[in-house]
Write a structure and sequence with these properties.
single chain; 251 residues; alpha/beta; 11 helices; binds phosphoenolpyruvate
């Protein structure tokens, strides 16, 4: 059966000192509650090693925000899947809208990244979602379908034990505007239907589908209560231990 997950994406925030402090705050906050979900944080790559050490023995897992598609070589400034594994990172976020928009990550590149991550036994949180103009023109289902078909729905069924989906409507990321619980459920049911049509009901029921886009403690419970929403990918609110814990305890 699929797992509920709350994953924080810290983006380019928190230096080494702040990373340790936030992890410490989070550990203290989580000791007082029972987390009925997996909890992940994604610090910047320079702080992954210390984050793995700082979270050891706690419920908090550490994921990366990105990795390069090549296994090694002349790619100045990049980080490989093996480097993530080597420092104890087991999960990587791929396809975030900021990577797609600011760093030109398209379906072809993401297919390469997904393939490399899977070959290196990394779990993937695969992000996708429509732009505001797609939703306004009623094209959001088509956009999401093509983002999935061009990358993860082309994988063998066996790969899916390491795939988590994160639907993130771009118009809701960092804007304070959230998809309504009904809009989230409608899209998540559509996504699960696509997975079912490709791989069958059992696999589709076992895939965790996260919602991302301005999730806060105040709206998490209602969004997470929807049948096909299995948790959230959290940006801004994951930078504060109290807010992040408030979202985690929404389950
Ligand atoms: C994100 O960046 O994945 C995200 C959902 O950000 P925020 O929660 O700030 O909208």
């Amino acid at each position: 059966m699929r797992k509920n997950i709350v994953a924080g994406n810290w983006k380019m925030n928190n230096n080494a000192t702040q990373t340790k402090a936030l992890i410490n705050d989070l550990k203290v906050a989580l000791e007082k509650v029972s987390a009925n979900c997996r909890v992940l944080i994604s610090p910047t790559s320079i702080n992954l090693t210390s984050a793995v050490a700082a979270t050891k023995g706690s419920v908090i897992e550490v994921s990366a925000q990105n990795m390069h598609q090549a296994t090694s070589g002349a790619y100045t400034g990049e980080i490989s899947a093996n480097m993530l594994q080597d420092v104890g990172v087991k999960t990587v976020i791929l396809g975030h809208s900021e990577r797609r928009t600011f760093f030109g990550e398209d379906d072809t590149m993401l297919t390469e990244k997904v393939t490399t991550a899977l070959e290196n036994n990394l779990e993937i949180i695969f992000c996708f979602g429509e732009l505001l103009e797609d939703r306004k023109s009623d094209n959001h289902f088509n956009v999401v379908e093509s983002q999935l078909k061009n990358v993860v729905l082309a994988l063998n069924a066996s790969a899916w034990k390491n795939i988590v989906l994160a639907y993130e409507p771009v118009w809701a990321i960092g804007t304070g505007e959230t998809a309504s619980p009904e809009q989230a459920q409608e899209m998540h049911a559509f996504i699960r239907g696509l997975v079912e049509a490709t791989y069958g009901k059992t696999l589709a029921n076992n895939v965790s589908i996260l919602y991302g886009g301005s999730v806060k403690p105040a709206n998490a419970q209602e969004i997470f209560s929807k049948q096909d929403v299995d948790g959230g990918l959290i940006g801004g609110a994951s930078l504060n231990a109290t807010d992040f814990t408030g979202i985690i305890t929404a389950f």
